[in-house]
Design goal:
Blueprint: E1 66-69, E2 76-78, E3 88-90, E4 93-94, H1 118-122, E5 123-126, H2 130-138, E6 148-150, H3 161-164, H4 166-176, E7 181-185, H5 194-202, E8 206-211, H6 217-223, H7 230-242, E9 247-254, H8 263-272, E10 277-282, H9 289-300, H10 302-314, H11 334-350, H12 368-379
Parallel strand pairs: 1-5, 3-6, 6-7, 7-8, 8-9, 9-10
Antiparallel strand pairs: 2-3, 4-5
Helix pairs in contact: 2-4, 8-11, 9-10
Length: about 375
């Protein structure tokens, strides 16, 4: 048809072409997830509908953080994984107000009957008696000392730690017992506890890692909305190192075609800030996290979304996640191999060693007053 040709009006049945359904995402300031997606255990699904009064166009109500008590009989969690340099962890918080959209711990909220989406970053649980439980377990006659990792599921220094101070209480207990520990965080709040950590580090009992995902402030604000800014984490590395605390950096997670370009620069700046160890983790998307992350990509980086997910699937055997040991942290294929080579080459250039822990266990002892209370309790049995 020539461009100048007039097109006759035609009667078109518009009902045959219904408008595409667009679901308005829940956008809350300081929150990464855009939905409260139901968990894999929930038999029902929910969706928003317009009640005829344009209700979907109304401003969403404020989303406030709710903290609930988490009853527990123990606080040390024992694990067996060749991918990790430790065999036990302390997790005194469940859910994380940092709200990192990529957090592999999000699906754990499903076991609580809560959503791995917005619930994970706004409906939190805390073990108020975590320090007392830790004392009890360290005092058990059969307890064998080994480095313990604090907060591997959710960040031990997330914002609510300012009020509840459970992490500080746990470190105090470990300090009294000369028990070695390691910790990974995205928060500068850890500087508050340098007075406890530095003396332990001097004895070879503490090792701290800062997790840094990207150097781009705008990406970081959307990825991990309530975590410290990237440059602030480098400052925390400098302050910890200046206090004599062994520090490292975790480039985690590495997101292909979005943050992987920063890997070398992160390692270089971390080394300049005092880090002497390093590790990385390829993006993991288990269970509900896959849909949550893809929705986030479509919302903030729609032009890159397909490319990012294509590389992830190429590195995960055609899926969005692999759970097998040796693969879940690193991935497989051309991109994953290239990433591993880049990391190894940069660490060799900078003199950064691996993330394996080199902490002392021979100093451990049950403090006297704990032992006396145990003896008194045992005498009551006779």
């Amino acid at each position: 048809m020539d461009l100048g040709t007039q097109i006759d009006d035609a009667q078109v049945d518009m009902d045959a072409f219904p408008p595409a359904r667009v679901e308005k995402p829940l956008v809350y300031k300081g929150r990464a997830a855009s939905s409260n997606q139901v968990s894999r255990f929930d038999p029902h699904t929910r969706e928003s509908i317009d009640d005829g009064w344009s209700s979907l166009d109304e401003e969403v109500p404020a989303l406030r953080t709710e903290v609930m008590l988490d009853a527990a009989k123990s606080v040390i969690n024992y694990i067996q994984s060749p991918d990790l340099p430790f065999d036990r962890t302390l997790n005194h918080y469940r859910g994380c107000e940092h709200g990192c959209i990529y957090c592999y711990a999000r699906p754990m909220h499903a076991y609580l009957g809560l959503s791995p989406g917005l619930d994970f970053e706004s409906r939190l649980l805390m073990k108020a008696d975590a320090a007392a439980l830790l004392k009890k377990e360290l005092s058990h006659p059969k307890y064998q000392c080994a480095p313990i990792a604090i907060g591997m599921n959710t960040d031990s220094y997330q914002p609510i730690e300012r009020e509840y101070q459970l992490t500080r209480q746990l470190i105090q207990v470990l300090s009294e017992a000369n028990h070695p520990f390691s910790l990974v965080t995205k928060s500068s709040l850890i500087e508050r506890d340098i007075d406890l950590i530095a003396p332990m580090a001097a004895k070879g009992l503490a090792s701290i890692y800062l997790s840094i995902t990207t150097l781009d402030r705008q990406i970081a604000r959307r990825l991990e909305p309530r975590a410290a800014a990237p440059e602030r984490r480098f400052e925390t590395l400098r302050r910890l190192s200046a206090a004599g605390i062994p520090t490292g950096v975790m480039v985690a997670p590495v997101i292909p075609a979005l943050t992987d370009c920063d890997m070398e620069k992160i390692l270089e700046q971390a080394h300049q800030s005092g880090a002497r160890k390093a590790g990385y983790v390829f993006l993991r998307l288990p269970h509900e996290l896959s849909d949550l992350f893809q929705a986030w990509l479509q919302q903030y980086f729609p032009l890159k979304a397909d490319h990012v997910m294509s590389i992830i699937k190429q590195s995960r055997g055609g899926k969005t996640y692999q759970s097998g040991f040796g693969q879940r942290m690193r991935g497989e294929g051309v991109f994953a191999d290239l990433l591993a080579h880049r990391f190894k080459l940069t660490c060799h250039k900078l003199g950064l060693s691996g993330e394996r822990l080199d902490l002392r266990t021979d100093l451990f002892s049950v403090p006297g007053r704990w032992q006396q209370s145990l003896d008194t309790h045992q005498l009551r049995l006779f």
